[in-house]
UniProtKB/TrEMBL annotation:
The keyword Cell cycle does not apply. Residues 11-21 have a biased composition (Low complexity). The lineage of its organism: Bacteria, Bacillati, Actinomycetota, Actinomycetes, Kitasatosporales. Residues 1-28 are annotated as: Disordered. The keyword DNA repair applies. Transmembrane segments: none annotated. This is 3-methyladenine DNA glycosylase. Keywords: DNA damage, DNA repair. It comes from Actinacidiphila reveromycinica.
Length: 319
């Protein structure tokens, strides 16, 4: 089956959309705030149309739903469809950073200060959906970004369901909602392999979905406590927990440790040295204790990474 062709599935039930308008209390960059939720340009759960409209499909505790964001930075209009529509609208302010407190951040380096001034509308999103952030983070373990994004896209096209949407409106085609825990458990071994997911990562996903709603209940726990509980699940380490909590909790201090590129990028931006390790990165970010993830995001936005020493590694071919 071609990679971009989804098997036919019944369309999601369609109903009139529900709408909510929210006025942010301070400058807000909607696209940059939500961009960490997009897993590549072909992510079936996330679209930005040419007119700037943001679309996002989620599996909420109330069921699948699709959210459309329009309007201006001063008044953002969210319209949602599907059984989980009201759940998404209730969480709209948190999704757009209302729970985030950027005033607690004090830049300590020139490059960070410049980025902080240049991006006043950056907020840390909080989805309240742990499993939704955890599964793609597991898929990103120990592989290239291209491989991980491909796996997420293929698995959703094959096993997700059509995203709810408006009747007769221009919803982006091909949007999907990720499977529920039972749906993930039914993914056959050959589809994991066909998506390039090895047994170790597939097993970690299956262990996580067996916990199901118990993992999503971690959204109500403090980030440090939720991190410890996540890391108690075999196959979920500090890297995966941090990547999850950055999105589910909007955790400002959830710095990603164990990443292949991040220490080099931060080290190069702050010292000019092209090669760094986790220990060096944590030392450089120590002045931002409590806000290390925000500092890292600003550095990634403002400063180029170190020059590459070799061509980008091509992802392996899977049969």
């Amino acid at each position: 089956m071609p990679e971009d062709t989804a098997p036919p599935r019944p369309a999601a039930a369609q109903a009139p959309g529900r709408t909510r308008t929210w006025a942010p209390p301070s400058p807000l960059d909607v696209r940059r705030t939500l961009m960490p939720l997009r897993r590549g340009g072909g992510d079936p759960t996330f679209r930005i149309t040419p007119d700037g409209t943001v679309w996002r499909a989620s599996r909420t505790p109330a069921g699948p739903a699709t959210l459309r964001l329009t309007g201006s930075p001063a008044a953002i209009e969210g319209t949602a469809w599907g059984p989980g529509a009201q759940w998404l609208l209730d969480g709209l302010p948190s999704l757009l950073g209302a729970d985030d407190d950027p005033s607690a951040f004090v830049p300590r380096h020139r490059v960070v200060h410049a980025a902080h001034r240049r991006h006043p509308g950056l907020r840390l999103t909080r989805t309240g959906l742990v499993l939704e952030s955890l599964i793609p983070s597991v898929l990103e373990q120990k592989v290239t970004t291209i491989e991980a994004y491909r796996a997420w896209r293929l698995l959703l096209l094959q096993h997700g369901e059509a995203a709810p949407g408006p009747r007769g409106a221009a919803a982006p085609p091909g949007m999907r909602v990720m499977p529920d825990p039972a749906g993930w458990a039914r993914v056959p071994s050959w589809d994991w392999r066909g998506a390039g997911v090895d047994d170790k990562r597939a097993s970690a996903v299956l262990r996580a979905v067996r916990l199901g709603g118990r993992l999503d209940s971690l959204a109500d726990r403090p980030a440090e406590e939720a991190s410890a509980l996540l890391r108690s699940v075999p196959g979920i380490g500090p890297w995966t927990a941090a990547e999850t909590l950055q999105r589910s909790h909007g955790a400002p201090d959830a710095v990603t440790v164990g990443d292949l590129h991040l220490p080099h990028h931060i080290g190069y931006a702050l010292t000019g040295e092209p090669r760094s390790d986790d220990e060096t990165m944590l030392r450089l970010l120590a002045p931002y204790a409590g806000q290390r993830h925000r500092a890292a995001r600003l550095i990634l936005l403002a400063a180029p990474g170190p020059p590459r020493r070799a061509p980008r590694m091509a992802p392996p071919r899977h049969r």
